[in-house]
Design brief:
- With about 775 residues, the protein is an alpha+beta fold.
- About 40% of the residues lie in helices and about 20% in strands.
- The strands form nine sheets. It has a four-stranded antiparallel sheet. It has a four-stranded antiparallel sheet with strand order 8-9-10-11.
- A hairpin with a 4-residue loop joins strand 29 and strand 30.
- The two termini are about 25 Å apart.
Length: about 775
């Protein structure tokens, strides 16, 4: 033992004597000192954030309509714009009216509109009493501004006036904003991220700093320094001296390996402890879990160093060791990329994501938004409702436009008619009206285009009397039909432009069932329809409201409730219960008439809810997570059930049969029907597998399982920092389109298995070390 400690001590001295170590540590200290004055300061909002423009089209329509009226806010705002800004807005007005050119796409998006408004807020001429006379303002806002008013105070007051003038288009629920400061100097601000998302912003910064300085440069620098340790150890003169001590060659190899990890330990400890102390000192955040990042990155380094150590023992050449590590990195990254492409690409596109039962028909929607029905004669899924263009590019593009909208099938009770929504491109950015499509059983459920919706909508529902209802961001609509001539014209126009140019809604196809002054709803909101009384529940960033359908068919405001902290949620309504699965993992069961909490539960720790479904009679509900787990709620006893099906952890969709059985999709093309608390399904529908499934199951997955997965340790870092076991799939982030917007739980996420990553990587390190020990034990020096 004493000999081993002596060798380990020598390794520590060797690392401490390295110039690279000292250069790296000095660089870390410099970086920590440089970022230590950084901070976030809070002040009254002086700028409109893009996500607070909840309905840009409504704003533009109001601006266009009222700009000619001399005593309106729109007229005054229009007069403050320069010629270039007015010209761009004219193009957008034409697009809204459907008179734009062939492209149908005006220049500029919502961000440019917000930027133009923000430039006006600090203008002393922005507020004129006569123009705001018809707007309900607080007494403090009615008073004209002083000539020498501070610009920030002036902009803050004008922002509130702007929001009051356009209540259906602008929603400012946080009247403070953040700025990035450096000591006493403001570097950037106000930021477009609201104060409630400051923790998310800090977490993202931590992940970036640790990933770059430890995960990339740190590992590379450590390998560069330690690549000579093993080859030098087994040089003829060195090995003879070391073996003169009472220590085995295998033990010597392991001790030298641990000594090589000392470099990364010192490097990681300085950076992580420095970040940890800065968070505590500058932001008041006590995050002791961050210290676990030290052993995490030592473990990550050990994966690559085990390859370097074995190569160094065999070839006794540092250059060869580094070259082999580079080849190893390329191989594991390539295999990981192939697995990720198949798992998050093809496999996800084919798995069942929505289930609908109507009569004796079973309908599904897969990850590519293709529709199918179960054909008992073929014992397989039969495609229906196919896009008439047959353009795969058309379909893939529509996936980018389905903000806040689940692509699912709504059907009449007997299954003779189905309806759904076809996502369309936005005229600008963000959400857009969809196209209502229908299909009849007698026509083989052939897709029939009806009409574009009056505005962005959350879904389509069929009532017991066959009404088609569409709750949207600006109101609730009922489809009343469209003339066959208008329908054919719309189909012809869509065909000319490849299906990507949105058609205009028919003014006679929809009846609005809500008050015209209804407040706009964000498209990140969740909307639930109760088939029993046709009421609606809406969760919008912590605000739960209801709409009750009256005897004349109109929707009137019902009870509402605010819940803190403000966050995203997915909800469902059934019987007398509204079930809300919150982003933080809590599940609330609320009485539908009073919105009082009747029960509370939780989904598995670290997961995000994906959807909530109620059985038709409202007796049972299921919450499904992005990780494929399900939590059941019995509304009769107001309790969450401990029962877990055997597919738990791989579920991709949930639904209920007409007799109240729970239906689960197993992440593939199969459905299983369960009675509550049953150990095994009472019925199964198994679709046929195509050859890519076999390639994944017998080639990609085994290779990925056998090889180490060092890149998955980045997910462990994310979990330690955020506490979440999933992340939005790259390329799907809507935050890039609408920064600062509330979280959208509809976005596809990839869930990672923390323990699988740990054990597979640990097994690889042990395997490589055993290989090195066996080689050295048999080697004749």
């Amino acid at each position: 033992m004493r000999a081993c400690l002596a060798i380990l001590k020598d390794s520590f001295r060797e690392a401490a004597a390295s110039r690279v170590l000292w250069i790296a540590m000095i660089a870390i200290v410099v970086v920590l000192l440089a970022i230590s004055p950084l901070g976030l300061s809070s002040a009254a909002s002086t700028q409109l954030r893009p996500f607070e423009m909840v309905d840009a089209e409504e704003f533009l329509k109001t601006l266009d309509k009222d700009r000619s009226s001399s005593e309106t806010p729109s007229a005054h705002i229009w007069s403050l714009l320069n010629d270039e800004q007015q010209k761009k807005l004219e193009e957008r007005f034409k697009a809204l009216k459907g008179t734009e050119g062939d492209s149908g796409r005006p220049r500029g998006g919502n961000n440019s509109l917000v930027d133009n408004l923000n430039r006006l807020l600090s203008d002393p001429k922005f507020y004129r009493v006569e123009n705001w006379a018809s707007v309900e303002l607080d007494e403090g806002l009615k008073t004209p501004d002083a000539a020498d008013e501070d610009k920030d105070v002036l902009a803050s007051r004008n922002l509130k006036r702007l929001a009051r003038a356009y209540p259906r288009a602008i929603d400012i629920d946080e009247e403070t904003s953040l700025s990035l400061s450096y000591g006493t100097v403001t570097l950037f601000g106000p930021l477009r991220v609201p104060p409630t998302q400051s923790t998310m912003l800090i977490n993202s910064s931590i992940i970036f700093i640790l990933s770059v300085f430890l995960g990339f440069f740190g590992i590379f620098a450590s390998l560069l320094v330690t690549s000579t340790i093993i080859p030098r150890t087994f040089e003829p003169g060195e090995i003879s001296l070391l073996l003169s001590k009472p220590v085995r060659r295998s033990v010597l190899f392991v001790v030298k390996f641990l000594g090589g990890c000392m470099f990364t330990f010192l490097y990681a400890s300085l950076l992580v402890v420095g970040v940890w102390l800065l968070l505590w000192a500058r932001f008041g955040m006590w995050r002791p879990e961050l210290l676990l990042c030290i052993p995490l990155y030592v473990f990550l380094f050990s994966i690559y160093f085990s390859v370097s150590a074995l190569a160094g023992a065999i070839w006794r050449n540092a250059t060869v060791s580094l070259s082999i590590v580079v080849v190893f990195w390329i191989v594991v990254q390539t295999i990981g990329a192939i697995h990720g492409f198949m798992d998050n690409g093809y496999m996800r596109s084919q798995q069942i994501s929505e289930i609908t039962i109507a009569g004796d028909e079973v309908f599904i929607v897969d990850g590519s938004r293709n529709f199918s029905r179960w054909n008992a004669e073929l014992s397989d899924w039969e495609p229906i409702f196919e896009y008439q263009s047959g353009n795969s590019f058309d379909q893939s593009m529509r996936r980018l436009f389905s903000f806040g909208m689940r692509t699912r099938v709504a059907a009449t009770p007997d299954g003779t008619k189905i309806v759904s929504l076809q996502p369309e491109a936005s005229r600008f950015t963000g959400a857009a009206p969809a196209t209502l499509v229908t299909g009849l059983k007698e026509n083989g459920y052939k897709r029939e285009i009806e009409s574009a919706t009056p505005g962005p909508v959350f879904g389509a529902y069929i009532t017991k009397n066959s009404d088609i209802l569409l709750p949207g961001s600006r109101g609730v609509y009922r489809f009343v039909g469209i003339a066959e001539k208008d329908k054919k014209t719309a189909v012809f126009l869509k065909g000319i432009f490849g299906g990507l140019i949105p058609q205009s809604a028919s003014s006679q196809a929809f009846q609005t069932l809500t008050d015209k002054n209804m407040k706009a709803i964000r498209m990140e909101a969740s909307v639930a329809f109760n088939s029993a009384d046709e009421s609606l529940a809406i969760w919008d960033n912590g605000e739960l409201s209801t709409l009750i359908r009256s005897d004349d068919g109109m929707y009137l405001p019902g009870p509402s409730r605010s819940l803190e902290p403000k966050q995203a949620a997915v909800i469902a309504s059934g019987g007398n219960v509204i079930l809300c699965a919150l982003a933080d993992g809590n599940v609330l069961a609320l009485d539908r008439t009073t919105l009082e909490t009747v029960a509370e539960g939780k989904i598995p720790a670290g997961e995000k809810p994906k959807l909530v479904e109620f059985a038709a009679e409202g007796s049972l509900a299921a919450v499904m997570t992005h990780g494929g787990h399900v939590v059941l709620f019995d509304s009769g006893t107001s309790t969450f059930l401990p029962w877990k099906p055997r597919e738990n952890g791989s579920i991709s969709a949930v639904g209920f049969s007409l007799d109240g059985q729970l239906i689960l999709a197993n992440g593939r093309r199969s459905l299983f029907f369960y009675s509550p608390n049953a150990d095994s399904p009472s019925k199964a529908i198994t679709g046929k597998s195509s050859w890519p499934y076999y390639a994944y199951d017998y080639v990609a997955l085994p290779l990925y399982s056998v090889l180490p997965k060092p890149s998955e340790l980045d997910n462990v870092l994310r979990y330690l920092v955020t506490g979440e076991k999933s992340t939005v799939i790259p390329g799907e982030q809507q935050s890039a389109i609408n920064p600062g917007a509330p979280e959208d739980l509809n976005q596809p996420r990839v869930t990672f298995n923390l323990w699988r990553s740990f054990w597979s990587n640990l097994a690889f390190v042990v395997f490589m070390m055993c290989g090195g020990c066996m080689y050295l034990a048999r080697k004749d020096f």
